[in-house]
Amino acid sequence: MKVTLPTPNRTFGFPDALGLAGLLGLLIARYIPVARLIPFWGCALRQTTGWPCLGCGLTRVADRVAHLNFAGAWDANPLGTVAALVFALMAVVMVLHLVFAMPVPELELSPTEWHRVRIGLAALVLLNYAWVAIKAKFPYLLA
Asked: What is the chain's alpha carbon radius of gyration, rounded to the nearest angstrom?
């Protein structure tokens, strides 16, 4: 793994795009009740089969993180909560970078390290889905 620190700049890059997406998403979640305004909003898989999909709970996560209800967000979808908090952090980094020219560290991984990251993320997604599915279908196992 190689970490480099570029010279201070205000060049819009990938971290800034993540920050902008996070900022817009959390502002929408905070001020616009999407799930109430759109009549067909919800998980079609869960509504027809009773089983949650991989993204079940992400709307609740965004809403709860935007309202600073971190425990409720974690209860809805743990990995989604981590992702929402990373997006919020990237929004702060974006502001610091674009307003104050704070250099954003650049991370370079070897192919082996990228492989390990992908395997780790896949394992986290599977564990998260197992938790969400057990919580939805067998809540008595978590009590």
From this structure: 18
Specify whether the CB–CB gap between 34 and 42 falls below 8 A: no
Instruction: Please state, in angstroms and rounded to a whole number, the distance separating the CA atoms of residues 136 and 133.
Output: 5
Element at 86 (helix H, strand E): helix 78-100
What CA–CA distance (Å, rounded) separates 130 from 56?
A: 12
- Residue 94 tokens, joined: 């974006």
Mean pLDDT of all residues belonging to the chain = 94
Sorted by where each begins, the domain ranges of the chain are 10-141
Are 87 and 18 contacting, i.e. CB atoms less than 8 angstroms apart? yes
pTM (2 decimals)? 0.90
